[in-house]
Design goal:
The structure is a single chain. The chain is mainly α. It has 2 domains: 1-78, Alpha-Beta Plaits; 87-132, Orthogonal Bundle (Arc Repressor Mutant, subunit A), CATH 1.10.10. It has 5 helices and no strands. It starts with 26 loop residues before the first helix and ends with a helix. 9% of the residues are buried. The structure holds flavin-adenine dinucleotide.
């Protein structure tokens, strides 16, 4: 089905209320949902979820929000996978003048928080080395 993934709460599992990721999709399925209004996305995802969980999936839903990452200005996608062996990438990693770049996309572990931390640390270390070198 086009939700592709339904994600159950990763904490407080089994409690009275929780957060469910109603769809986590890519490709054509993501484009199908992106073309709908948030209200219609919800209706579509719930209709699919009801097939798995029954009517409670609809009646117990309090509220929802959704985001189509490829329609977010400047980011235009959920993840970036640059060519990490290219000279351009290495140059960006070393910064330019007083400017240092950090973000998961600026690491070898794009699309993960681990990469974001790694990249921030890399930038701070580079700055530190520069200051210590006088
Ligand atoms: C759908 C999805 C699912 C994910 N699932 C996982 C997962 O399960 N596990 C995991 O580890 N990672 C996951 N990630 C990746 C994780 O969210 C990112 O790796 C992490 O948030 C990147 O952190 P960051 O600090 O590099 O960038 P961001 O969190 O994107 O922070 C950048 C910030 O800069 C702000 N900004 C942008 N431009 C400007 C400007 N001009 N001036 C001021 N502020 C600006 C933005 O608003 C944003 O708040 C997922 C990402 C997505 C999109």
């Amino acid at each position: 089905m086009d939700p592709q993934h339904i994600w159950y709460p990763s904490y407080g599992y089994g409690e009275q209320k929780g957060l469910v990721i109603g769809y986590y999709n890519t490709g054509n399925a993501a484009r199908t949902y992106a073309a709908l209004s948030p209200r219609d996305r919800e209706a579509r995802a719930v209709a699919q979820g009801v097939k798995i969980h029954g009517e409670k999936y609809r009646t117990e839903l309090e509220q929802s929000f959704s985001i189509a990452w490829h329609r977010v200005p400047y980011i235009e996608g959920a993840w970036a996978f640059p060519n990490t062996t290219s000279p351009g990438f290495k140059k960006l990693q070393t910064g330019s003048g007083n400017v240092y770049f950090a973000g998961d996309w600026m690491s070898e572990i794009s699309a993960w928080q681990h990469g974001a931390f790694w990249s921030a640390r890399y930038a701070v270390q580079a700055l530190h080395a520069r200051v210590m070198a006088g």
